[in-house]
Design the sequence.
């Protein structure tokens, strides 16, 4: 068994060794055991299900809420010659139908789905027919209402056992308290003896610090000047990403910026520039970083602080994945902490406001009552807010509550290429091409450039077809749309906008229902998490590394020795050391004169003086202090 997984690791990923705990987790999965794996950011969670899936017969079902991460992993697996598919917002019903058929009858090894898709009839009927090796539940903390990112659709995952009782589950998360771990095991129906593998939350190479200052820009510049290498700077809103990036460039520090409102092509380009070290700093909202495995990030700076310690630990944890010394710094002022409290209150609005947003959304997307079921729509947040005089932050809070209540599914903006499938048999298509001189060139060119369109959807680039035809891209799109209307092809045009899917038909707003008791419980949980991050921000007399470990129910072995609290005494001692040396002239200084300059009742002063004498830096002769060099 071990030889085969090492062979897969080497052949597919080119690695000779597993990271800590990966092999143990994989062997547990191969033994058919339900398994919980806690691997903090950068621990290599994906290999823990990808390797055993390739070693076992059948398909691995991967449940994940992160559509962009699903897309990236499917593309990476496909490049390695491994068949993988995913169901996500933006796919046509025919695409979903064919993707699921391929999972039943084809050689697909991985199917990535969002939890919202698990209860759809089309998925359940096909799932019954699939040969499934095991289920990997990524971001498993989302199943717990005690977690910071609870998603009720995760509760549907356990129902898969009713269809396939012998199915085993691998639950993966980067951050979970003991309470959340127990909730994951219970909600997924784990046996009592199901193993838990937990990597320490200790990051001995990461120096944690939090500084209260009114000169954030100056402190940021100082940190960048003192810490060579790549950096991420997190800010609280989209506007600040550009403003701060422009300021850094003006300071001769190469920088770019990133947020979810940018075109997907622009986001991908800027991300790659930073990964390839073409720019040193990327200034971003918290939309940046998930799935980014850049090992040499030396500095992560928060111009403020995250809404909870789990999110902060994940974001700060993007520093130093190569094991080398790195820094995670929060720059704060009183306004940041007040803003954090204000945002917390805004996360639990009057439910009438949420209902009004839901009604406005239906009007905006032109969906009739009882319509829209399982349909996906491009969603322009800016236009929606302008038309209905709403604030973007409030709208996102409302949409999140609607998602938690099971009415909609949201996905971030993706740059998914256009897809085409030919709907006619080849003989009928040939007759059509002969009869349509105007549309024949685009069909002929597309078929020459891309294969497999009669059996499945194929990703295309309209620009490439246009270049081959010496025709404008817009004209290619127009002709493909015409062929789509004629039902010659199914043409799913690329979209770089965020998308919304109606999981339930549109309700009349008078019949919208929310679980008020659940919302009250969530508010209590999030209040506790707010207090924990505020305490971290204001720590004065406690090791930051220890505080993080204790929060995640890990017993510290002693102070970390390198956070801002731990190095503060050393810094003070160093300063005192220099002051004493400077106070003693070459001719010497009497002990009486020394006592007049320094408070010798202070134990730190007397201890430092004794150490300087014992170590030979100073000498004491006839009650006179001298430098040893004199």
Sequence:
């Amino acid at each position: 068994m071990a030889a085969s997984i090492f062979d897969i690791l080497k052949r597919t990923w080119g690695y000779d060794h597993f990271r800590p705990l990966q092999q143990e987790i994989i062997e547990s999965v191969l033994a058919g055991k339900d398994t919980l794996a806690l691997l903090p950011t950068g621990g290599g969670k994906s290999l823990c299900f990808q390797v055993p899936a390739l070693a076992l017969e059948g398909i691995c079902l991967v449940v994940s809420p992160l559509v962009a991460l699903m897309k990236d992993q499917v593309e990476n697996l496909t490049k390695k010659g491994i068949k993988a598919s995913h169901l996500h917002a933006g796919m046509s019903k025919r695409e979903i139908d064919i993707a699921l058929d391929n999972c039943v009858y084809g050689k697909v090894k991985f199917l990535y789905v969002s939890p919202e898709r698990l209860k759809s009839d089309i998925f359940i009927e096909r799932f019954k027919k699939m040969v499934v090796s095991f289920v990997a539940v990524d971001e498993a903390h989302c199943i717990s209402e005690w977690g910071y990112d609870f998603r009720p659709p995760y509760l549907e995952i356990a129902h898969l056992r009713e269809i396939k009782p012998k199915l085993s589950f691998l639950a993966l998360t980067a951050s979970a308290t003991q309470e959340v771990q127990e909730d994951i095991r219970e909600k997924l129906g784990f046996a009592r003896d199901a193993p838990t593998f937990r990597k320490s939350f200790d990051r001995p190479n990461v120096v944690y610090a939090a500084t209260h200052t009114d000169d954030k820009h100056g402190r940021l510049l100082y940190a960048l000047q003192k810490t060579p290498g790549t950096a991420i700077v997190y800010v609280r809103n989209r506007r600040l990403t550009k403003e701060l990036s422009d300021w850094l460039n003006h300071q001769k520090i190469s920088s770019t910026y990133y947020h979810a409102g940018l075109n997907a092509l622009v986001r991908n380009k800027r991300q790659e520039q930073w990964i390839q070290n073409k720019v040193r700093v990327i200034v971003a909202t918290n939309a940046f970083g998930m799935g980014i495995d850049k090992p040499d990030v030396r500095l992560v700076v928060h111009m403020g602080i995250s809404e909870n310690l789990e999110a902060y630990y994940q974001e700060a944890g993007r520093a130093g994945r190569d094991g080398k010394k790195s820094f995670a710094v929060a720059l704060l002022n009183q306004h940041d902490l007040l803003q954090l409290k204000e945002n917390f209150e805004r996360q639990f609005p009057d439910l009438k406001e949420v209902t009004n947003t839901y009604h406005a959304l239906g009007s905006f997307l032109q969906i009739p009552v009882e319509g829209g079921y399982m349909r996906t729509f491009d969603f322009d947040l800016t236009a929606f807010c302008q038309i209905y005089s709403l604030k973007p932050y409030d709208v996102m809070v409302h949409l999140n509550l609607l998602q938690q209540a099971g009415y909609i599914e949201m996905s971030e903006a993706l740059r998914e290429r256009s897809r085409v499938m030919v709907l006619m048999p080849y003989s009928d298509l040939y007759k059509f091409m002969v009869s349509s001189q105007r549309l024949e060139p685009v069909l002929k060119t597309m078929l020459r450039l891309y294969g497999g369109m009669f059996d499945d959807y194929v990703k295309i680039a309209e620009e490439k077809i246009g270049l081959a035809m010496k025709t404008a891209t817009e004209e290619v799109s127009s002709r493909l749309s015409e062929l789509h209307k004629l039902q010659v092809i199914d043409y799913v045009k690329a979209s770089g906008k965020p998308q919304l899917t109606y999981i339930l038909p549109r309700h009349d707003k008078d019949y919208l229902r929310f679980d008020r008791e659940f919302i009250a419980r969530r508010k209590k949980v999030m209040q506790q998490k707010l207090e924990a991050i505020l305490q971290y921000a204001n720590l004065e007399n406690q090791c930051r590394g220890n505080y993080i470990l204790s929060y995640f129910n890990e017993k510290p072995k002693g102070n970390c020795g390198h956070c801002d609290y731990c190095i503060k005494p050393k810094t003070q001692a160093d300063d005192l050391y220099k002051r004493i040396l400077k106070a003693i002239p070459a001719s010497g200084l009497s002990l009486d004169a020394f006592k007049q300059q320094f408070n010798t009742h202070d134990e730190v002063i007397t201890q430092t003086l004794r150490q300087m004498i014992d170590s030979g830096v100073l000498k004491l002769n006839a009650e006179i202090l001298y430098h040893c060099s004199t």
Q: What stands out?
A: The first strand starts at residue 35 and ends at 38. The two ends are 71 Å apart (CA to CA).
